[in-house]
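Try it yourself: sequence plus glutamine, in.
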Amino acid sequence: MNHRKTQIGVLAVQGAFAEHIAMLKRCQADAFEIRSLKDLQHPIDGLILPGGESTVQIKLLHELGLFNPLKSLLENGLPVYGTCAGLILLAEKIENDIQKSFALMDITVIRNAYGRQLGSFFVQGVFNQKEIPMPFIRAPLIHRAGNSVEILSTVNHDIVAAKQQNKLVTAFHPEVTLDSTVHHYFLRMVQQYKNNQTEKSIA
Ligand code: GLN
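Structure, out:
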């Protein structure tokens, strides 16, 4: 067993990172902000890519020299949870944009897919068999998901939560609600990853 307290890094260059940190604290996990390269010296068991403006986030990740180091952590299996803009950052293909994402998850997304009128809305939806509140804020649409992508939630036939190996994404924002179901789900992924790391180190 790995007894060190779980440490979640939250990308904090732009967007709704404070809400994720508050939610993680409510879930009894330690969270720290990632603003520059030196923050990656901190022990890290999982990463959250928050909502915000994906174009700005990608630009800042490159300017701060964080893009490649974070990408290799994720390629090496670090669990990651991308919300909204964070989902866009993980998608292999962004249909209506030329920006370069991490491109690590076998999904195609359309940014701002719900148009101006329906830009933001709120529904009760089922995530992993549990009904939870789902706020959508200028959300992306998962237009296509590859065979190895597990669909965890749909709303009106649209995929709004999905998982592929170490990657979890939601098009909605659970961190602005009081419901911690999605964060607990992610923290279980992180715990499994920590357990596997420990097994490897004693094998
Ligand atoms: N519309 C934003 C984008 O394309 C995402 C919105 C959000 O993260 N709430 O980056």
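One thing you can check immediately is this: The radius of gyration is 16 Å.
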